[in-house]
Protein: 2Fe-2S iron-sulfur cluster-binding protein
Amino acid sequence: MNHEITFKPSGKKATVSRGTSVLAAAQRAGVYIPTRCGGKMGCLMCKIQVDETAAKHLSHAAASEQRKLGSLVEQGYRLACQSKIEGAVTVTVPEDKLKAAIRRQLEAARQEREDELW
Ligand code: FES
Structure:
């Protein structure tokens, strides 16, 4: 059985078979989720955020994943490499900190230019 996964904030989607990891689905959808360990739960770089509804459509976090994530579990974080898709789901890929800083600077510069024009 296939399920659709949607990645926020890009809105990109992929249709994958049940049991596919979110990391593999992201690669299929062309969504970049950082990884250094190749999905072996060694790098903790593949964090995604899921709300309560989405969590019901993903496999449960194993004790080992919960241990690795610590208090982030309560904030809705999962590891994309360990989260298996069990239904139609939407997940959020947190923005890279460097990209977020650049985006904020560009937005501030754009706002300054707009203010100068008025
Ligand atoms: S890809 Fe390294 S922990 Fe998930």
Remarks:
- The chain has a mean pLDDT of 94.
